[in-house]
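Weekly structure sync, notes
Attendees: PL (lead), two postdocs, one rotation student
Agenda item 3: pending single-chain targets
PL asked that the sequence for the first pending target be pasted directly into the notes so everyone works from the same version. It is reproduced below exactly as submitted, 207 residues in total.
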Amino acid sequence: AATVRDTSALEGTASVTVKRLLKLKPKLTWALQAKTLDQRDSIIHLGLSNPFTVKPADTAEISLTMASRFAVYQALFGNLPYSVGAEGGGTDRIPINLNRVTLKIDGVIKGDSLAREWFLPGQDVALNCDYVAAGPHTVTLEAYGMVGTFQGLLFSGSGNLTTNAGEDGSKPITLVWVGPTTGAARVTVILGRIGKITVVGGFSGLL
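Predicted structure, written out during the meeting:
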């Protein structure tokens, strides 16, 4: 046949070497194309060798090295806080409740964890994104919750990360407070009535 096909079952994310001995017609020009697919039928590896020929009664050694097209990103929100400082130089703290954390890559939400009620203080929450293409990316972490009567985005942090195929790495991102920085106070001012004083002049010693 003009095309020879072969498949193999693989498992895991580690580097794997697949060796096969295939019977090919000699004196023809061949090329080796290989690809891997995951359980979602997404193409993880894809490569094509240079053309080669096989001599009669001989064996041609062909090697094809393929880099992964994607990396897995994991965002770890460690030791979730239970309070924030009430003011910059003070020691008073205000309790907060977090119920959602998100992982954004290049401005698009790739991981989202919404608690049924609230996360526990000190809890660790992890988010994963399995299909991040190699190259530079902007990673943003956000945490939502409630403080006082306000509910919405409370913490946010961003950083730049370059993904190289097949490499592990890590990058710390600091989440800073982006929630409300001012409060409201009901102020009542009572103005007293303006009194009127009448000075009556009386004359004495009249003839």
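Discussion points:
- The chain has no helices and twelve strands.
- The mean pLDDT is 87.
Action: rotation student to compare against the earlier draft before next sync.
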